[in-house]
């Protein structure tokens, strides 16, 4: 379900350290710009919703009381669902890598998909932005991409 709202930052969340960094970054940016945050968790069909993840994300959101927020759970392919959700959004924010570690690269497949296909600017946040070293390259800079 697309947001169709230019005052929204859409952020993908899966509970990984890079995802947590992305969620924190999205809330900080929303606070600075006076925007709302929509946190999206995507589950593959047939997998149950992770209640612990939902509670964890709510605690992050509660730490930013001035930022209007809502949470949405989707089912399907993660990259496709995030791109679809970012339609009409001000920004899409994702972590540089998710919990799956198939190959050692700075950019995971979901982040790469979002950079190629998102209908709005994309910010890719490495876990190192929160002091984590989950990114095997040790990259600390934000990567941005704009698709017009």
Tell me the span between the first and last alpha carbons.
Answer: 21 Å
Overall 3D shape: globular
Q: Which structural class should the secondary elements be placed in? A: alpha/beta
Q: Unreliable segments (pLDDT under 50, ≥5 consecutive)? A: 131-143
Strand order of the largest sheet: 3-2-1-4-5-6
Largest sheet: 6 strands, mixed
Order of helices and strands: EHEHEHEHEE
CATH architecture: 3-Layer(aba) Sandwich
Beta-strand percentage? 15-25%
The CATH top-level class label: Alpha Beta
- What is the helix fraction of residues, given as a range? 25-40%
Gyration radius, rounded? 14 Å
By DSSP, the count of extended strands is 6
Average pLDDT reading: 79
Number of helices: 4
- Might you state the CATH topology name? Rossmann fold
Number of domains in the coordinates? Answer: 1
Task: Characterise the protein shown here.
- It is a single chain.
- With 148 residues, this protein is an alpha/beta fold.
- The protein has one domain: Rossmann fold.
- The chain has helices spanning 17-33, 51-62, 78-85, 109-117, and strands at 8-12, 36-43, 69-75, 91-95, 122-125, 143-145.
- Strands 3-2-1-4-5-6 form a six-stranded mixed sheet, sandwiched between helices.
- Strand 1, helix 1 (17-33) and strand 2 form a beta-alpha-beta unit.
- Helix 3 packs parallel to helix 4 (109-117).
- It is globular and about 35 Å long.
- The two termini are 21 Å apart.
- Residues 9-46, 76-126 form the UspA domain.
- It holds the Pfam family Usp.
- This is UspA domain-containing protein.
